[in-house]
Amino acid sequence: MKSKLFMAFVTSSILATSVVAQDAATYRFSQGYPTAETSVKARDDGDLQRALTAYRFWYPTVSVEGIFNGNRSVGIDDNQAIGGAAAGPRQVGFTLNSDTPYGSATLDVSKGPIVVELPPGAYIGLVNDHNQGWVLDMGLPGPDAGKGGKHLIVGPDYKGKVPRGYLLGRTPTYKNLLAVRALPVGGDQDKALKALEAIKIYPLGNPKQRLKFVNTTNMDLDSTSLKWEDNIQFWEKLNEIIQAEPVVNKFEPMYGLLQALGIEKGKPFKPDDRMKAILEKAARDGRDQLLVSAFDSARADKLAWPDRKWEWVGLVPGSAQFETPAGIDLEARDRWFAQAIVTSPAMFRRTAGAGSLYWLGARDGSGAFLDGGKTYRLSIPQPVPGKLFWSVTAYDAQTRSEVQTDQGKAALRSLFELKDVTGSEPVDLYFGPTAPAGQEGRWIKTVPGRGWFAYIRIYGPDKPAFDGSWKPADFVEVK
Questions:
Q1: Which of 57, 301, 326, 382 is deepest in the core (most CB within 10 A)?
Q2: pTM score
Q3: What is the mean pLDDT of residues 372-390?
């Protein structure tokens, strides 16, 4: 049986094409047959519709390849190393944050299973496949629940036995992303980085081939797909992935779309001028459609509170791949992957005590998008309902990565910049090109001429974060 996700994409493609085909002003028929001009236009329109659907579906696949590519560029090669960083603006990645050190590695299971051995501790981790499909959680949200454990990642070709005592994750692709964070308990970033270094990754049965640790904190690293996403390189990169990975059977309809566009496993990708123009237009338009879903969705359920402009980042609570009882929420999927990376049911929970909770703020209280040339105040009621810590991070709307300025930071965090906040009085935070007098320690610099948005994150959120008894103010422009 085909997955609901892929049938939903196919249905949306057919409907879109049908609407165009039924437009009598667009197409002309004579005695039931299309005119020559109509045939040319219908073929072009049909291929563009297929390309737009394919772009939006395969965007997460190309996006995660951006992470693999960024890692390789600084010496974090597949099955050779794990990178770790106390991240900041110089690590460009879709809504990465500076709250916790990150670790990431590309796990290639084409030659056999890989073991990820976590010590006991405050880790939050997961593995996603090459299509950003969820494979398993690990650490606090996973089956080891922070007590440590050996996680075994098994690929599609593996026919051997699974040894006892391992926490199993089966993946349909060869290349997989390991993403893990170590919580800086007590604000100790160095200790958290060392916790990442303590993770052991090695081929099953060969612990001596442990991946080395590379500290990328002081390296410039771009793990996005920005350079590919609005041009022919998107399709070239996707073709490389299709050629290298096994066919995932439940994706058959989506491979069919690619085949119609000239991307087929085992065959060269050589688009002619006509197809190249169609694919480039689809990349530009598809990317822009994703960004509209990300920042200007018309749906009402995006609002976290009816009297605020803050929005839920994940629109399908508790899902692994945006599934609902009625089908796959395609716009929620578009919205997430345009802003962020990786999926897990633990990331989208809206329950007290869950690992973390995110809200998106892209507008001020008047409804206007946030402007890097203006100054804003954000009032956060105290205490914030979280057992661990909280933060506010500013992101550039074009790169969807932390704002880059000579200030060299993009976050205000309760464990660091705001560790002196006590009591029940709200704390005011500021964002703009220059700091208001006396507020330099509670200010993030923004760039005139560039839009930006913010995420509020609460780690270990309590009930008031969900029932409306606690909520942040909206951004207010400071004249």
A1: 57
A2: 0.92
A3: 96
